[in-house]
Each structure stands twice: as C-alpha cells, then as structure tokens.
Prior knowledge:
Elements: E1 9-12, H1 18-29, E2 33-38, H2 42-56, E3 60-64, H3 73-83, E4 89-92, H4 113-140, E5 144-151, H5 162-182, E6 187-194, H6 200-203, H7 208-218, H8 227-236, E7 249-252
Parallel strand pairs: 1-2, 1-4, 2-3, 4-5, 5-6, 6-7
Organism: Malaciobacter molluscorum LMG 25693
GO molecular function: cholate 7-alpha-dehydrogenase (NAD+) activity
Protein name: 7-alpha-hydroxysteroid dehydrogenase
Amino acid sequence: MNEFMNGKTLVISGGTKGIGKACVYKFAEAGVNIAFTYNSNEQVAQDIVKDVESKFGVKCRCYSLNILEPENYKELFEEIDEDFDRIDFFISNAMIYGRAVVGGYGKFMKLRPRGLNNIYTATVNAFVCGAQQAAKRMQKVGGGSIISLSSTGNLVYIENYAGHGTNKAAVEAMVRYAASELGEMGIRVNAVSGGPIDTDALKAFTNYEEVRDRTAELSPLNRMGQPTDLASACYFLCTQESSWVTGHTLIVDGGTTFK
C-alpha cells in the first residue's frame, strides 16, 4: 500500500476489461478507492467490485455509462459524489468497437462521417466531459491527475486505423490544452499512448493475429504489450514521482514505434 495514494479515489471509464480493469486492480492494490463505469455487463462489473473490495479492502463501486453519450458524465459524477467524498484521479479509458465504428474503421476511401463522429465522441468529447467534471471535484481537494488513453496509431500507420488514429491525435492535443489551463488548480493532465495491446478491442480488428505477431516481431523486447503495461504507466502519472509531468504523452509501445 502506497501512503501517498492510500485513501484517494480514482474514477475510470470502462473498468470491466483490458486496460481499464488492469488499472482498477493496480490502483486498488495501492489503497485507492475505485469508481468505474461499464457499458452493458452489470454482472461482470459487480463481480469485479466484490473481488476488489475483498482483496484490497478499499471501497469500489460501478456505474453504467454509454460513452457515446458523454453529456451524461454530469449525472454520473453526481452519483459518484453520493458514494465518495473526494476524487483525485480520472482516467478516460473506455472506447468503442463493433457496430458503433462502422464507417470509422476501414480504409480511407471507405470512411464515413457517422463512424468517424462516433469515434470522436467516444474519444475526444468523452475525455472533455469527464475531465471537466473530475476537475471540479479535484479543485476542492487541492489538485489531482487526469489521464487519457491514446494509441501510437496516430504516429505510425496501422491498417484500417485512420478513424481511431486521427482521433487519438486529437485527444492528445486536447490533453495539452487541458494541462495548460488546469495547472493553476494543481491538476496535471497527461496521455498514455500504447502500442498494440492484447485486449478484446484489438481482437476485434480483422487482422488481429497479424498485428499481434508483427508487434512481437518489431519490439526489441520480443513480446506483445499487455494491459498491465499501460496500467503501470497510468499509475506512475498519478503518483508524486511524476509531480512535474503534465501536458505530456507517455509512449508505452515496447520500442515498436521507432522501427
């Protein structure tokens, strides 16, 4: 348990699987109370709540949120206020795939406004709406740390990833603007940009096996990235050890982007 982190509260979107779930457990292990969102599978979310509370002795609660309706963050945070007396960290993690990204996931000539707009809503708008609500609460406790998950797909070409990659570039720009304006409140804002990570979202890619094998081949470390790799980076950006890091994108890609 980390003395600095103990008793603080993390709010994270999309906490039932992949990177989000890894963050829930990483922060809870350090004594941080957890409020996370889920989209549809309430039972899985409730099971995680019970497991986290029994393993780590922290307070953990889950809340339903459709990331394509980011204006609902206001009501969500009001719900969280009823369960927690402070908010110190916010991680914008939830993403969309499947039917919601039709027209946004594909070759350039196949891109369509609806799919692209959905990705923008779930990536940029969701970060803005969530971070605004979190910042209001963080200001009351003297500051905090806000993080957006991102992807190296805005730096290197990934097949069919134009819609996601351009929106990851956009959210990283928004992170820098937020960092510039929220610093006076004692709030740091950063992005964690992952190379291909072995998650359900990646498995939804039509060329998942090719991406998986190519990533391990490109990495000097000879392995695929795991959700815990990004969770550890998010954790670092919330600790005292990163107290002068803001407006930054931390790339966690196993050395693949350079090659």
